[in-house]
Amino acid sequence: MNETNSLKKFLLVGAFPDNITDDYALKDLKELKSLVEAFGGKVVDLITQKREIHDKGMYIGKGKIDETAEVVVEKMIDIIVFNDIVKPGEIFEIKKIIAKKHPTIKIWDRVDLILNIFSKNAKTAEAKLQIELAFMRHMGPRVFGMGMIMSRQAGGIGTRGIGETNTELMKRHWRDQMKTVKERLIKLMDERNKQLDRRRKIGLKTISIIGYTNAGKTSLFNRLVRKKKLVENALFSTLDSTVGKIYLENLQKEVIISDTIGFIKNLPPKLIDAFKSTLSESIHADILLHVIDASDEDMHKKIAIVEEIIRDLGISETKKIYIFNKIDAKEAINKEGIQILYDKFSPQFISVKKDEGIQELFEILNKKFKSI
């Protein structure tokens, strides 16, 4: 399922509208570069193109594909990654051209890359099944498209092409596999839901930590539960939900707290859907701790991205506390302005690294749970 990633050389390709600045395009590709590094690959070059509409049938223009092919050969590229969701037919046409010069080249879009990172980082049976299902949903249309191309090449007018027959067989096999994986996943989801029901019945309160990836969610989780969970400076290093307990003194009881997958922009809906069962800890939580990197110049944009995703998950009305982390990483943080702008989310300012603001966070949690 996932690609062997040792020492793989990557070429990044991004297509942007004419009105996008060069700085914005490079910043956008910087996150794609971080994804490649999270996978374990090495970015050796990047190519950008600006145009109002994507080239019909090939995503980027023929001239840009020829330029890409030259870079692939010159720099011995293993994998090309497009910073977008690319149609199966477009990937086929691009690969057909580039493979003339580099037969073993692999071409991925953004979803391919994210799925391979997911596959690398999944630990639990449930997460592995979710990834398998997401891979099948993503790759199915691509495989069927190949079958239809074979059909057009092998079948004559009024005849049933070899490719068409193969496509039907592939679709049947794909549907059978999907059904098997879904059935196994449903069993695991049922067990998780039973655990959540048992918690509710005995009155256990729950907290879930969410946020843009690399904001410091796992570090905060470790600090709150006094746990030594692995912290990696890589996108999607947290994939499976991790659960612990914290004691709230004013309530004189323990509450359940979970750490979840970090979000990024342009996370395709199909990938969010694939992880809804893993994210059930967040969906059913009494309080969400939205962890934010206060030193990030794109902080407000990333807050909006996370809020959009949790709306898609149907949990936007859950009580939220905004946790502005890494206050030690930047000299001038406008706390007063942040306080005014996000007042309804009870902003808290912390540095997990320097253990600042943690006691105040416990105090606000005590207050919030008293009102639930």
The fraction of residues assigned to DSSP E strands is 15-25%
Question: How many discrete structural domains?
Answer: 3
Largest β sheet strand count, sense and barrel closure: 6 strands, mixed
User: Total number of β-strand segments?
Assistant: 10
Query: Spans with pLDDT under 50 lasting ≥5 residues?
Result: 147-159
CATH topology of the largest domain: Rossmann fold
User: How would you sum up the global shape?
Assistant: globular
| Name of the CATH homologous superfamily of the largest domain | P-loop containing nucleotide triphosphate hydrolases
Write the CATH architecture name of the largest domain: 3-Layer(aba) Sandwich
- Rounded average pLDDT: 83
Alpha carbon gyration radius: 23 Å
CATH top-level class of the largest domain: Alpha Beta
How many helical stretches? 12
> Which structural class should the secondary elements be placed in?
alpha/beta
Report the span from N to C terminus: 44 Å
What this model shows, in words?
The strands form 2 sheets. Strands 6-7-5-8-9-10 form a 6-stranded mixed sheet, with helices on both faces. It has a 4-stranded parallel sheet with strand order 2-1-3-4, sandwiched between helices. With 372 residues, the chain is of the alpha/beta class. A hairpin with a 4-residue loop joins strand 6 and strand 7 (253-259). Residues 147-159 have low confidence and may be disordered. It folds into 3 domains: 9-118, Rossmann fold (3-Layer(aba) Sandwich), CATH 3.40.50; 122-185; 204-370, Rossmann fold (3-Layer(aba) Sandwich), CATH 3.40.50.300. Helices cover 48% and strands 16% of the residues. The chain contains 12 helices and 10 strands.
